[in-house]
């Protein structure tokens, strides 16, 4: 089951790991809007497109972002 708090925490972990802040440049590079991040903070489920953008930007799996695995590695 999707847990917004896990997703938000995982996004923060990946962001901190890369030394990024949520700012306009980072969001633009990740193809995200401030509203999309705010929606996750409010507990709304992000679209698969937004999850794909975040996973690609952070080079991690969607499964990791949504808490289905503790391994951020992307299996190709």
Structural notes for this entry:
The protein is mostly helical and 76 residues long. The protein has one domain (4-65): 434 Repressor (Amino-terminal Domain), CATH 1.10.260. It is built from 5 helices and no strands. The protein has helices at residues 4-18, 24-29, 34-41, 48-58, 62-65. The radius of gyration is 11 Å and the shape is globular. It comes from Congzhengia minquanensis. This is Helix-turn-helix transcriptional regulator.
Query: Uncertain segments of ≥5 residues (pLDDT<50)?
Result: none
CATH class: Mainly Alpha
Residues in helices, as a percent range: 55-70%
Q: What letter string, H or E per element, gives the SSE order?
A: HHHHH
- In angstroms, what is the radius of gyration? 11 Å
**Strand percent estimate:** under 5%
Give the count of structural domains: 1
Question: Can you count the beta strands?
Answer: 0
Mean pLDDT: 86
CATH topology: 434 Repressor (Amino-terminal Domain)
Helix/strand/pairing category: mainly alpha
Distance from N terminus to C terminus (CA atoms, Å) equals 24 Å
What's the CATH superfamily, by name? Answer: lambda repressor-like DNA-binding domains
Count, helices: 5
CATH architecture term: Orthogonal Bundle
Coarse shape? globular
Major beta-sheet overview:
none
Condensed summary:
This protein is mostly helical and 76 residues long. The protein is 58% helix and 0% strand.
């Amino acid at each position: 089951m999707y847990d917004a708090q896990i997703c938000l925490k995982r996004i923060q972990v990946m962001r901190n790991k890369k030394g990024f802040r949520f700012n306009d440049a980072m969001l633009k590079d990740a193809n995200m809007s401030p509203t999309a991040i705010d929606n996750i903070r409010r507990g709304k489920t992000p679209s698969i497109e937004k999850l794909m953008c975040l996973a690609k930007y952070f080079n991690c799996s969607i499964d990791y972002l949504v808490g289905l695995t503790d391994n951020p590695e992307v299996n190709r």
